[in-house]
Amino acid sequence: MAAYKRVLLKLSGESLMGAQQYGIDPSRLADYASDIKEACAMGVQMGIVIGGGNIFRGLSGASKGFDRVKGDQMGMLATVINSLALSSALESAGVKTKVLTAVRMEPIGEFYNKWRAIELLEQGYVTIFSCGTGNPFFTTDTGSSLRGIEIEVDAMLKGTRVDGIYTADPEKDPTATKFDRITYDEIYARGLKVMDLTATTMCMENNLPIVVFDMDTPGNLLKVLRGEPIGTYVSNEKA
């Protein structure tokens, strides 16, 4: 039995690299498609946002001389490539999908609007949102927050390569301890980098909870959807 009716799953572009240094690892893509298919079989309506950092990241491009606006536009196109790849993997697994874009580029994807997105979700489509917000200077984390709020999800699920939020970076600090639950206020007070500040503030102000979990372990997505206590649950409510 699913604990959520409708969710927004945020995936990083880097996660699609798998063991590679660049691009898309077909085996990682297949693992994601398998988990998402099982989630759909539970009756969960799922929207997805994928970053583009495995192909191009606008901010790092700007540091190398790219115009920031053009760099961010290149990053938006990278998210379209990733969205099409995931859509293709899901369709091969028998899952109906639709790619919506925040910038017009029919027939590659359908131009986004809230009502069409909700209609597709209710018809059983996995709906993949690409191009972030469609504007430069906004991350795909902010795009995820915006889309999650717009389509009225029960929670945003942030799939990462670590199993939750820690007091410090666990890859750098072996003494870091994990939070099972944490409030948005505490995230600000501790200066924790869960998402960028714009995205975090949007979720806080619109009372949208986030579950941060390890997406790279097969089966974890299903555990989160069943309400099992893995990862870290972020909300405005104290434990």
UniProtKB/TrEMBL annotation:
The chain positions of domain Aspartate/glutamate/uridylate kinase read 5-214
Query: According to its UniProt record, where is this protein mainly located?
Result: cytoplasm
Task: Provide any one GO MF term from the record.
Answer: ATP binding
> Catalyses which reaction?
UMP + ATP = UDP + ADP
> Which SUPFAM superfamilies does the record cross-reference, listed alphabetically?
Carbamate kinase-like
Domain of life assignment: Bacteria
A Pfam family matched in the record = AA_kinase
What's the Enzyme Commission number for this chain?
2.7.4.22
Any one Gene Ontology cellular component term annotated for this protein: cytoplasm
Give me the residues that bind ATP, please.
10-13, 53, 57, 160, 166, 169
EC class, as a word, reads transferase
Kindly state the subunit structure of this protein.
Answer: Homohexamer.
Q: Which NCBIfam families match?
A: pyrH_bact
What name goes with this protein? Uridylate kinase
Lineage per the UniProt record: Bacteria, Pseudomonadati, Bacteroidota, Bacteroidia, Bacteroidales
Annotated gene: pyrH
